[in-house]
């Protein structure tokens, strides 16, 4: 994993908010990450920010993203994890901080779990635009 050449990158916090909006797709979330180039950019740990964001995220989608990226962590080993469990464990909070803010997907695809439609990620920017026949 290398350092990014620019600050414009897709972080996992972004992935947690994206879904496939193709016509006819009912379950387009969470998108599958197929990463070709991932970079780690260290940043200061902000526990308060992680706690606030954690309460608004889908943990199952975060776990899916981490597994797609072949990451490991204490919080991934706990089945049926809860926000309360993570908030009570500083190591888990730091792991989540790393996943949400320090992991940057530079190249690859986001794949709709229902239709299989691939949305490219180029230079850290996911292209979620649909073709005319998909709207």
Please give a structural write-up.
- Helix 2 (47-54) packs across helix 5 (90-102).
- The longest helix is centred in the C-terminal third of the chain and has 13 residues, at 90-102.
- The protein is α+β, with helices and mostly antiparallel strands.
- Strands 1, 2, 3, 4 and 5 form a five-stranded antiparallel beta sheet that branches.
- The model is unreliable at 2-6 (pLDDT under 50).
- It contains five helices and five strands, in the order βαβααααβββ.
- Strand 3 (103-111) and strand 4 (118-122) form a beta hairpin.
- It has one domain (10-123): Single Sheet (N-terminal domain of TfIIb).
- This is Multifunctional methyltransferase subunit TRM112-like protein.
- It holds the Pfam family Trm112p.
- Belongs to the TRM112 family.
- GO terms for molecular function: protein heterodimerization activity.
Summarize the structure.
The protein is α+β, with helices and mostly antiparallel strands and 135 residues long.
Counted up, domains total: 1
What class, by secondary structure content? alpha+beta
Low-confidence stretches: 2-6
If classified by CATH, what would the architecture be? Single Sheet
Number of strands: 5
């Amino acid at each position: 994993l290398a350092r990014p050449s620019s600050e414009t990158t897709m972080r996992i916090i972004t992935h947690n908010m994206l879904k496939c909006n193709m016509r006819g797709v009912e379950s387009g979330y969470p998108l599958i990450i197929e990463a070709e180039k991932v970079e780690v950019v260290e940043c200061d740990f902000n526990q308060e920010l992680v706690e606030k964001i954690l309460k608004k995220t889908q943990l199952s989608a975060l776990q899916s993203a981490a597994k797609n990226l072949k990451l490991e962590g204490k919080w991934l080993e706990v089945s049926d994890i809860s926000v309360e469990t993570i908030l009570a464990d500083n190591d888990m909070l730091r792991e989540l901080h790393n996943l949400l803010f320090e992991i940057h997907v530079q190249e690859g695809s986001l794949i709709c779990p229902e239709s299989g439609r691939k949305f490219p990620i180029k230079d850290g920017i996911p292209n979620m635009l649909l073709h005319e026949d998909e709207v």
